[in-house]
Amino acid sequence: MPIEIVCKIKFAEEDAKPKEKEAGDEQSLLGAARGAAAPRDLATFASTSTLHGLGRACGPGPRGLRRTLWALALLTSLAAFLYQAAGLARGYLTWPHLVVMDPAAPAPVAGFPAVTLCNINRFRHSALSDADIFHLANLTGLPPKDRDGHRAAGLRYPEPDMVDILNRTGHQLADMLKSCNFSGHRCSASNFSVVYTRYGKCYTFNADPKSSLPSRVGGMGSGLEIMLDIQQEEYLPIWRETNETSFEAGIRVQIHSQEEPPYIHQLGFGVSPGFQTFVSCQEQRLTYLPQPWGNCRAESGLREPELQGYSAYSVSACRLRCEKEAVLQRCHCRMVHMPGNETICPPNIYIECADHTLDSLGGGSEGPCFCPTPCNLTRYEKEISMVRMPSRGSARYLARKYNRNETYIRENFLVLDVFFEALTSEAMEQRAAYGLSALLGDLGGQMGLFIGASILTLLEILDYIYEVSWDRLKKAWRRPKTPLRTSTGGISTLGLQELKEQSPCPSRGRAEGGGASSLLPNHHHPHGPAGGLFEDFAC
C-alpha cells in the first residue's frame, strides 16, 4: 500500500504567538494558495440584478421555451427603449426654443426714446461755394465752374474739409424748426444734438442716456410734437444722376434707444411735407437665448467699451464698425459718420467709398461682417398714421405767421407727433422649449416603462462589467506562482517533492550502491513495485 509521509516541524521562536493567530494564518495561507475569489458569473448577476426580466432570461435554471420567450421579450423591450431614447436625443439636439410674451404683467417704461431726424437733402444749394461745387462734383452731380459760370480745367482750390462742408452747407435745425413741444412744455433747437449719418448733418432729440427725459402720460400730445420746414427751395438741382441722388422731399426719422447710434439710412422711416404724421410707440424688451438655442451676443461684463467709439454694443454700432473697416481697407480713410480718429475721406472719393460699405454687410452670418443680436434688447414698435395739413383756414394763418405763401406752406411744412401708446412695456422672451431636465425625465419614463431600470440599475451593470474586465486583465498580465515553502507561526509544511529536491540524502539508487550516510535510515518497502513507486524519505 502506498504511503505518503508529511513531516511538520515546529521551530522554536522567542515570542510565540497564540494558537488563534496560528489558525488564522493557516486559513490565510490556504486562501492565498487557492488564489483570489472568481468574479460572479452571468447567471448569478442576473439573478440579483434589478433589471426587469434579466433574471428570468439569464438566471440559473434549466433552458427551455419559457426562458427563450423571456429573452425575446427582454430584447424587444430594450430595442423599443433605445428607439425612443434616440428620438428624444435627436429632438433635444435640435435645441428648440419658443417665444413667450407676457402682456399680463407689463413693466413701466424706462424713459422717452431718442428721436433722430434728417433732411433728405444733404446740402443746401445756396450755401455751396464754387470750391464746394468743385470738390463735391462726384457726390452731387453738379459740374464744377468758376465765378463767371465757365468750366475751367485748371481750377485749383484748397484741400476740402468734409466736416466743415457738412456743418456749413447742411440744413440748420434753427431754420427748419418752427415749433416744438414735449409733454406740454416748449422746447427748441438747443434740446437737439448734432449727429452725422449717411444723410449728412442730422439732429437727435433726447440723445443723452444719462439725462433721459421721462414721459409722464401716454397718448397723443403727451410726447414730442414738432413742426418743420424742409426748405425745398434749397434742394440741389439734378444735373446728372448719381448713387446719392435723391428724388424725394421730406425728412427721415428713426426712433431708437439712447445707447444705440442712429442707422437711419437703413432703419428710418419717411415723413412727407403737407401731412401731420402720428407715430404711436410701444416699448418692447426682448430677451434672446445664446448658443446653442440662438445666436445672440451675451454681455462680456468688461468695463471698457466692447466697440471702439460706442459706450455699449448694438447691431447698428457693429454695422458701422464693419463699414469703417471696409472703407479703411479700400480707401485708407473713414467717412464722417464713422467713429474714430482716422483721416476723413476727401469728397472726390467719398461716393466710391460709400458704395463699398454696402458690400461689407452682405451674406448674413456667412458674410464678411456678422453682427449678432444682443441677448437683451430694447426696441420700439411703431404704428404710423397721418392726416393732411394744413387745412385751408390754417394755411392762410401759417402763411401770414411765417411770411410765406400758402403754396409754400403746403409743399414744405410738416408736423411730427411721437408719443407712447401706454406707459407700459411688453416683455418678449426666448425660452428653451426642451431642456436637459425634460430630457432626463422623458428618458427615465421610457426606461421604467420598457425595461424597469433606473440610474442605479445602470450602475449595477457597469460594476459587473468592471469586475469581469478587471479579473481578466489580472489573469492576462499577472501569472500566479506557486510558493515552494510556506510557513507561518513557526510551523513549516514540506511536501514530498520539495523534500526530495532539498534533502542532502542521496537517492535510492545511490543509497543502495554507495550507502551514503543520512540523518535517518533509508526506508524501502520490500514488496513495492519496480520503477520506484515508493521513494526514499529522509528528514
Automatic annotation (TrEMBL):
Its main location: membrane. It is found in: Cell membrane. PROSITE patterns: ASC (PS01206). It is a multi-pass membrane protein. It comes from the Eukaryota. Residues 500-528 are annotated as: Disordered. Keywords: Cell membrane, Disulfide bond, Glycoprotein, Ion channel, Ion transport, Membrane, Sodium, Sodium channel, Sodium transport, Transmembrane, Transmembrane helix, Transport. One of its GO terms (molecular function) is ligand-gated sodium channel activity. GO terms for cellular component: plasma membrane. InterPro entries: ENaC, ENaC_CS. Homotrimer. Heterotrimer; with other ASIC proteins producing functional channels. PANTHER family: ACID-SENSING ION CHANNEL 4, AMILORIDE-SENSITIVE SODIUM CHANNEL-RELATED. This is one of the three pore-forming subunits of the heterotrimeric epithelial sodium channel (ENaC), a critical regulator of sodium balance and fluid homeostasis. ENaC operates in epithelial tissues, where it mediates the electrodiffusion of sodium ions from extracellular fluid through the apical membrane of cells, with water following osmotically. It plays a key role in maintaining sodium homeostasis through electrogenic sodium reabsorption in the kidneys. Additionally, ENaC is essential for airway surface liquid homeostasis, which is crucial for proper mucus clearance. Belongs to the amiloride-sensitive sodium channel (TC 1.A.6) family. ASIC4 subfamily. This is Acid sensing ion channel subunit family member 4. It comes from Rousettus aegyptiacus.
